[in-house]
UniProtKB/TrEMBL annotation:
Chain ranges passing through the membrane: 12-31, 37-55
Protein name in UniProt: Uncharacterized protein
Keywords: Membrane, Transmembrane, Transmembrane helix
Record has Transmembrane helix as a keyword: yes
């Protein structure tokens, strides 16, 4: 059930990103700056609320690599 909810949220945020892209490109093409502002607002919402959902695997890998690099740097400092 959790996987299905996560998949539904992921799909929702992907659709919102696609709508923001269409609005932004349409605003640039037509010179309608209100569409661009709406697209930017949607983008900020997706970034703030959907980042953890959309990029969950990437964030976990990044945290793991960061922790490994930090441990490596600490071991180098301790050898001196």
């Amino acid at each position: 059930m959790k996987r299905k909810v996560s998949s539904l949220k992921k799909t929702t945020y992907l659709i919102l990103l696609f709508v923001a892209l269409i609005l932004f490109l349409g605003g640039l093409n037509n010179g309608n700056y209100m569409n661009n502002l709406i697209a930017i607002l949607i983008g900020f919402i997706v970034y703030s609320k959907g980042n953890k959902i959309l990029f969950e695997d990437y964030n976990q890998r990044k945290q793991k690599k960061t922790a490994e690099a930090k441990a490596f740097r600490e071991s180098l400092r301790n050898k001196k």
